[in-house]
Specification:
about 500 residues, Alkaline Phosphatase, subunit A, 10-stranded mixed sheet, two-stranded antiparallel ribbon, 20 helices, about 40% helix, globular, binds zinc ion
Length: about 500
């Protein structure tokens, strides 16, 4: 064990040395130049608590002998390091709707709202301003495309659940649309029976229902690429399902396609890329799935940074919208193998909790309401132990298998923390004995969140920012500074364009 541990750190150390800080002259001229970017790539690892970055980094160092793209960027002196205060209008803990809206319109809104104030005032999203300025606009995600984070950049509705109006608002505003959530576009699933896919086709969009059709995307193509209803698969499951691999692209592949379409846009582009399932797997207290989706996000970061380094005219912002359940690797005693070996167990896992629950005839997707039993079904403890053995290769203690089985049946009172007194909560706690990764709950947290920026304009993302300032910086960098009405005490009462060149926000 001791020598294995030394190997692990030796390998990790070699990976660190392998990161070259030397860059080309062209790159050296980028960043911190005071110039405005032509293009902006805004990348959101949704629900990424601070502890997720090192979990992904340790995994990358161990498996690939190299640093993650995000960690490499953090070591570059020319990158800007910051944090966002993501509070919403009605809570110090935001949801993804209020979080994305704060960036998307510059005003704090109530949790659950998309760019709309509590009195119903509809606010102008950054994507609409980008489009009016002549930029191309893209949204790429691993969840439903109408869901909160993409919607916050391009739609305005009272409630994030209003998927059908969101899908309508994207048409002719968002040029590149890739992710899940097809149900909001098809005649058979929409309440008004409108065939939005046909409407998009008539508006000149290339329709790509599976990955192979993406090969037809050319520079300037408008794209509607929805790879199923609801979210795309967790990365840990996607990689093991041949049919999914054939038909559903990874986040990195979608990002590359979006850049192929928009990279030569005459007036530039604004692209939001969301790794959504980091949030979902954190809600599910599923450490292995969190790590795999964060690494899939990091691969997309690599695609974006390659583009930006080649070009020199592109700002890349990496961030998250809130913490979630705050996973962290604990110091683990010898009885459970020590922290390194525990983390390696998580690395070796072969299925998400969601897939494992399906095998148990259950559903373990995250459940934010701790009192809700959902569709839990009683399961034999022996069956639980067998499925966990199959996918995590650990032998559960009988009392732990029994606790999971009882939680699967909806029994309460198994643990004292009400959030974790659920199937996913009990599962997460039991598995933390083996993976070493503990969770503080099953929901979002109020933590300041990490951001890192690279390229022209990155200097404006240094330090601790209020979430709403991100909108002001994005719109000013795009050359279309704008103020929306707000309801949070700031002296803003009407929407207005701000004359270009006015230095106001730089002083905020
Ligand atoms: Zn969430």
């Amino acid at each position: 064990m001791a020598s294995q541990r030394r190997d692990f750190f030796k390998q990790a150390g070699l990976g660190m040395v392998g990161v070259s800080l030397l860059r080309t002259n062209a790159e050296a001229q980028q960043a911190r130049t005071g110039k405005r970017p032509k293009n902006i790539i805004f990348m959101v690892s949704d629900g990424m608590s601070a502890g997720v970055l090192p979990l992904a980094e340790l995994t990358s160092q161990y498996e690939n002998k190299r640093a993650t793209n995000w960690a490499q960027l953090l070591r570059e002196p020319r990158a800007a390091r910051g944090m966002f205060d993501q509070a919403s209008l009605n809570s110090c803990v935001t949801d993804s709707a209020a979080a994305s809206s704060s960036w998307g319109c510059g005003s704090r809104v109530n949790n659950g709202s998309i760019n709309t104030l509590p009195d119903g005032t509809s606010l102008t999203p950054v994507g609409k301003l980008a489009k009016e300025k002549g930029l191309m606009l893209g949204l790429v995600t691993t969840t439903a495309i109408w869901d909160a984070t993409p919607a916050g950049f391009a739609a305005s509705v009272q409630a994030r659940s209003m998927r059908e109006p969101i899908a309508e608002q994207y048409r002719n505003r968002v040029d590149v649309i890739m992710g899940g959530g097809r149900e909001a576009f098809t005649a058979d699933k929409r309440s008004d029976k409108q065939d939005l896919v046909a409407a998009y086709r008539d508006s000149g969009y290339l329709i790509a229902p599976t990955k192979p059709e993406l090969s037809a995307v050319k520079p300037g193509s408008k794209v509607l690429a929805l790879f199923g209803d609801g979210p795309l698969p967790y990365s840990i499951d996607h990689v093991r399902n041949e049919n999914d691999r054939t038909n559903i692209p990874t986040l990195a592949e979608m990002t590359a396609i979006a850049l192929r379409s928009m990279g030569d846009a005459k007036k530039g582009f604004l692209l939001q890329v969301e790794g959504a399932r980091i949030d979902h797997s954190a809600h599910a207290n599923d450490a292995a799935a969190v790590i795999r989706d964060q690494l899939a996000f990091d691969a997309a970061v690599g695609v974006a940074l390659d583009f930006a380094r080649r070009r020199g005219d592109t700002l890349v912002v990496l961030c998250t919208d809130h913490g979630n359940s705050n996973p962290g690797l604990n110091s683990m005693g010898s009885a459970t193998g020590g922290s390194d070996e525990c983390l390696r167990r998580a690395m070796r896992a072969t299925a998400s909790f969601s897939e494992m629950a399906k095998q148990l005839g259950n559903r373990s997707d995250y459940n934010m309401d701790a009192n809700k039993v959902s569709d839990a079904k009683a399961t034999a403890a022996e069956r639980v132990a067998a499925v966990v053995k199959q996918h995590h290769n650990v032998d559960l203690k009988p009392e732990h298998a029994s606790a999971i089985a009882r939680a699967a049946g909806g029994e309460k009172g198994i643990v004292l923390n009400a959030q974790q007194d659920t199937l996913v909560g009990v599962m997460g706690q039991v598995m933390s004995n083996h993976t070493g990764v503990g969770f503080v709950g099953t929901s979002h947290t109020a933590d300041f969140v990490t951001s890192t920026a690279f390229g022209p304009g990155c200097e404006h993302f240094e330090g601790l920012l209020r979430n709403t300032d991100v909108f002001q910086k994005l719109t000013t960098l795009m050359g279309t500074p704008f103020k929306n009405p707000a309801a949070d005490g700031r002296p803003i009462t009407t929407a207005s364009h701000i004359p270009v060149g006015e230095p106001e926000f730089w002083l905020v």
